Known about the structure:
The chain has nine helices and no strands. It is mostly helical. The two termini are 16 Å apart. The protein has one domain (2-155): Tetratricopeptide repeat domain (Serine Threonine Protein Phosphatase 5, Tetratricopeptide repeat, Alpha Horseshoe), CATH 1.25.40.10.
Amino acid sequence: MRTLLTALTCLILFxxxxxxxxxxxxxxxxxxxxxxxxxxxxxxxAEQGNAQAQYKLGLMYGSGEGVTQDYAKAxxxxxxxxxxxxxxxxxxxxxxxxxxxxxxxxxxxxxxxSSIAAAQGEMTADVIKSSIEDKMTRDQIxxxxxxxxxxxxxxxxxxxxx
Length: 162
């Protein structure tokens, strides 16, 4: 687990071109309630692949901070961050699929993303996963487990021991 966390940290720090001042300035603006300035600074970082900025833009679209609230615009940012292993983005993506906010409702997708987050210790994800599982058939659960395993390999397991 420690190796996985180290690998995730390295991936986020070394594969995302981020100017520290831009990120710091964006967070300062966000914390000060200047959401339009925060958005202006975060958007290029997110476009460059910064998972934290992608997640933050998802939150801003999801809550309407500095932009018009739009779940359909939030979800792609959550997905981009989730696919880079961002745990909170994985949880939010599961939630959006669970209730159909910005995407067609899908128990299968919600189950897969919540399974990934739960496997990493996110307790809220366990609750989501359990509530979805209660509505699913055995075959649907098996498909959800297969999808979660596929996503795990693609979006969580970054380095494998040889």
